[in-house]
Amino acid sequence: MLKDEDGVLTGPMATALEAEFGVSARIAPQDYIMNALIWVMKDVGVAFRHYIEDGRANALAVKAVLEKFDGARLAAASAPLSLLDFASGYGRVGRHLSKLMPAAFYTAMDIHPTAVSFNRDTLGLDTILSHNEPELVVSDRTFDYVVALSFFSHVRRALFDKWLQALHRLMKPGGMLIFTAHGRESHDATMPDVAIDADGYGMMKTSEQFDLSTDYYVQAITYEPFVVAAIKRIKGLELVAVEPASWWGHQDMYVVRCVEEASPSAWQRAAMRISGSVRYFAGRARRTLGRFVKSATGKSQPETPPPSI
Known about the structure:
The protein has nine helices and nine strands. The chain is an alpha/beta fold.
């Protein structure tokens, strides 16, 4: 939890930052990034400005990437496109991105219920709750753009393909995924002692988010050949570009296109089977009731629409 005994985060500095950047400067007490910045910088005010300023810089960078690789579609869109900020945290980037890209309706998705409620109720953002199991990440919508900044830098090897598949299921055909990961530069600069296997993967079993288990969340190093091979294994995804060490001066950025709609997950297939069974038995029950009413009264039962599932 944040320690701000002097009220810097809610005082005149917050008002000044809101005026300067045109976004809310409200900070959630549980925001692990702000907590980490305060711990590293030893000054709440310096950390506060960096949080807001760097959030805008990241939003501008996302906008620039989308314009670079999909600018024609953005410019020609007659209706708003859709953008999902996956693993959005407490809106550090989202509070800016939602305003900087009016051509793309913004949605934040995060695993923390407190982040979802903060983004929705305090920042006024559209939100979806995520899950720590990739197959259980579901949405009733798909998106033109999915952005996952520094998410794959924390994914275990065994879950890497599954998370790519999960994000693929959130994409519209023709949509684009932008994600960053710790590559060679990150390895050399931040975790030089981590051993890398022959495929280009290494990890430290540690988490700066104390509420997330290292069964799911670690510090991962993924060299470009490892990531490219993973993308190639996912039917329907196509690598567009790799820009090594282009994010935060050390993380690699990947741009991926959805060229074919994703297949439903096993969980989704099971849910569809259950839904179909419910509809089938509901239909049988209506027909049986109709025959009973007709035999008892000589009148047919009025048609009623099937229940919503």
